[in-house]
Structures are given as structure tokens and as C-alpha cells.
Amino acid sequence: MMLRRGFILFLPRLVGLLVVACCSMSIVYMLACTPKGDNQQLSLPRVHSPTAKEGYEAILQEREEQHRNYIISLKKQIAQLTAELQGRTEQLKNMQNQYPDSLDIQLDHSKPEKAQANLLAFLRSQVDKAEVHSGVKLSTEYAAVPFESFTLQKVYQLETGLTRHPEEKPVRKDKRDELIEVIELAVGSLNKPDGVSKAKPHVYTASDFVEGIYRTEKNKGTLYELTFKGDAKHQFKKIVLFRPFGPVMKVKNENVNMADTLINVIVPLAKRASKFRQFMQNFREMGIQQDGRIHLTVVYFGKEQMNEVKSILENTSKSANFKNFTFIQLNEEFSRGKGLDVGARFWKGNNVVLFFCDVDIYFTAEFLNSCRLNTQPGKKVFYPVLFSQYNPSIIYGDHDSIPSLEQQLIIKKETGFWRDFGFGMTCQYRSDFINIGGFDLDIKGWGGEDVHLYRKYLHSNLMVIRTPVRGLFHLWHEKQCLDELTPEQYKMCMQSKAMNEASHGQLGMLIFKQEIETHLHRQKLSSKKT
């Protein structure tokens, strides 16, 4: 009886202990099932609450739902990664099929190291196919892929797209990010220790960047050539990078010393003494005073105005203490090709950079460095695209408001255009010019000889660097369309003259000038009445 009574008294305590044990086990289970990093805290119902059971069931159901969603999310990510991997595999298989002979790309996923090596070999083969180390033979002048030049602030472009701006601050994010990435990579490469020199290395920054050129060949990749300031005056660092539609690869890192690189500027001339005087002012400031590593060769045709031209040359020589010039006189009809050819062959010194120039050209000392950096004997010739000036009288209106020549030389669509159809201004080493055969001397007068020489270089293994440059300008002068021309030639001449006079917008303002003035007059009368 006493035992039964004691059991009855102990039973409530046992039930209470079992309830506490169950609650403890539930808490431990929920803590163990909670994913790591989940900071969400769940409020547990109190043990003695009448809804404790329903609360625990709700919590367990919610936790189960979270795990189910988590598993579904993982499955989606796995499916996306699988699809992306399959897409990449298909792309690489297409590459393999496209180049079955030149490269054997085997994407064996069981051997990732071999697959990576084959892929790297493919990317390097893209460098070999592009014009990085040497030029390739091209069929016509239209086959050459031009470069575009850039600085830290601006891009000078031929394919202007809808903006029609010959220069722009890159507003497109992809272009801006691309060039920033390339400059940063070049700076990082220049600052890597070479392990050879014990001297304290020069630390390069983006401010040391001088200029760069780049072009994209759609079936190969993008080639970048960047020039940085060197350790001393007239010394530069040049780094070549290539993006084979993949990571940028360093191709070359070399020192370029231009301290002793002489440029022979060759100018063919007949009459035009006043233009020659203007040319010599530019030559003296940029060539003699700022650059100093320059020679001038003037090939003069005929005798009319010859003494005036020689006097201008001699006065500049005396006032600037400049002796590096040659004057050659030819008693024959003017031929630009003949004059340049004679001037190039007359040189008897060491191999020299030749800059074929006209008397109506303005250049900067910066351009002369570009001329040196983009030529290499047996390797490269330079065909810059110059900026052609519009008629200042149309651009600025009243004659009294026309600014000085230096202030006019601004690269904007209102002031001029890239003369991408002209091939007359070019830089090359004399040895390359002689080896290619020089000019066609059967061509008389102006025109034709420059394209003929350009095609010779394109048909050779020399690399032709074609890019717009910001330091070379064609000064506006009136174009004469002679009466002896045929009606078709005269029409073409007038079209060319119109293109050199002003932009489409400015010519439109001239055409509708009367209509505009009538509108302004009406507006003036209307304002007086009110």
C-alpha cells in the first residue's frame, strides 16, 4: 500500500522529467539542423504553453522548407554552371575544328594540365597569326587594318561611328575600362624586377605614359603598343601587349633609345615662297629648337622664286645656327615623286629615318618622336593619318576674328577631318625605301606616287603602321580646279574642294544663310512690335 502510494506520488515528477527531456532533445535537434552562418534567431515557445506542440511543429516545418529551398537553389546553380561549361566546351570544340592543322587542341577533362597547355598553345598561335612580330603581304591599300592612338585622356579614332568625333574622351565604359586595364598591366610589367640589374629600379606610374596605339583584327585579337618615358631624355620604354580574345599577354618589353636617331625631312618644292617661309617658322621652332635631331633636304624645281627660297633657308641657318640642311635644284617640270626620290638617294650618311613632307604641313616635336618610334629598319614603316584643316574664313567668320595658327590647330569636327585617304606623309628608314624600289618616276605632277609607294610596302613583309596622330596637320589652302579638266574631273575636283572647305553643318549654314537672315529679321521686327 505504501509502495503504491509512493508510486502515485512519483508519477507526476516522472512525467515532468520526461517532458523536460523531450524539450531538451528538440532544442538540441534544431540547433544541430541550423545551417552555419545563418544569423536568424527563432523564438521558442515556452514549455508549459498550451501551443507548445503546434509551435515546435511549425518551427520544424519552417526549417524543413528552408532546407528544401536551399537544395533547390544549389541545384539551379549547378545546372547553370553545367550549361556554361557545356557552352565553353562547344566554343573550344569549334576552335579545334576551325584550326585542325595548325593546332591540335584536345580538351581532355580527365587531364586538366594537358588541356590548359593546349589552350595556351592556341592563344600563342593567335599571336603568331597576327601582325605582331612581322608584317604580312596585303593585296590592296584597303586591306590594311589601321591603328587608333590614345593618351591617358583621349582616343584619336578613324572609325568615329555615330558621334563623328575624330577625338573623344572615351565615354563608352567598355573602351575606357579596356585602355585603363592595358595601361595598368603595362605599368605593372615595367615595375617587375628583372633579376639582373642591381641598380635601384625606376618606378613607373601612369603619368610616365606618353602615347599608345592599338588595333583589333576580328579573327585574332587586339594589339597594343605603349610608349613610356625612359630613364633619360630622348629615351623611352616600349611595351607590346596582345589580347588574343582572352587574357592580355606580354609580347615584348624593350628599351628604346632615340637620342641619336636623326630624321631627314625631305620637302619637294616649286615656287610657293610664302608657304615655305611659314613652313620654316614651324621647322625652326619644332625641329631645330625643341627636337634638335633633324636634317632638312629641299628639292627645288625650276628657278622662279628660287633665290627667295634659298634666302629664307640661309637666314634660318644663320639665326638658329643650323647647318644640317641640303638644297638640291632640278631644272625640270615639278614631280613630287621625283623630288622625294632624289632627296632620299642624295643622302650619303648612315641609315636615317626619312620623313616625306609637304610645304603646307605643320608638325610638332611630339610627332617627330612618333615618327622615330613607329619605324624600324627591315621591320616597320609609318603612315600617319594627319588632321586636315578646314577653311579658317568659314570656321571663324569675320577675318578679324581668326585666331593665330597655333590656336587654330585643334582636333574637333568643326575645325577639320582625318585625311584617311592621303598617303603622302610617311616615315621610313632609307634602307627600306631603297630596297622597296623607291617612287615610280613616270608619274608627273601631284598625286598617285604616294599610293604607288604605299602599295609597295603593303605587298612586302614590312609592317605598315597606319594611325591618326595628333601632332601632324595639313594647313588649309585654296584648291584650284583648272579649266583644262574634263567635266567629270572638274566635278570631282569641286567635290574635293567642298570637302576641304568646311564640315557638312557649316556648309549647310552657308547654303541656308539667306533663310536664316530672313528669320532673324522677322524676329527682330516682331520684338519691336511687342
TrEMBL record:
Gene3D superfamilies named in the record: Spore Coat Polysaccharide Biosynthesis Protein SpsA, Chain A (3.90.550.10)
A GO molecular-function annotation: metal ion binding
Protein name: Hexosyltransferase
Localization per Swiss-Prot or TrEMBL: Golgi apparatus, Golgi stack membrane
Gene source species: Dicrurus megarhynchus
Gene: Csgalnact1
Signal peptide (from-to): none
Biological processes annotated in GO: chondroitin sulfate proteoglycan biosynthetic process
Database matches in PANTHER family: CHONDROITIN SULFATE N-ACETYLGALACTOSAMINYLTRANSFERASE 1, CHONDROITIN SYNTHASE
EC number: 2.4.1.-
This protein's GO CC annotations: Golgi cisterna membrane
Catalyzed chemical reaction(s): 3-O-(beta-D-GlcA-(1->3)-beta-D-Gal-(1->3)-beta-D-Gal-(1->4)-beta-D-Xyl)-L-seryl-[protein] + UDP-N-acetyl-alpha-D-galactosamine = 3-O-(beta-D-GalNAc-(1->4)-beta-D-GlcA-(1->3)-beta-D-Gal-(1->3)-beta-D-Gal-(1->4)-beta-D-Xyl)-L-seryl-[protein] + UDP + H(+)
Membrane topology: Single-pass type II membrane protein
Transmembrane region(s): 7-32
Alphabetically ordered keywords of this record: Coiled coil, Glycoprotein, Golgi apparatus, Membrane, Metal-binding, Signal-anchor, Transferase, Transmembrane, Transmembrane helix
Family: Belongs to the chondroitin N-acetylgalactosaminyltransferase family.
First-level EC class: transferase
Coiled-coil region(s): 71-98
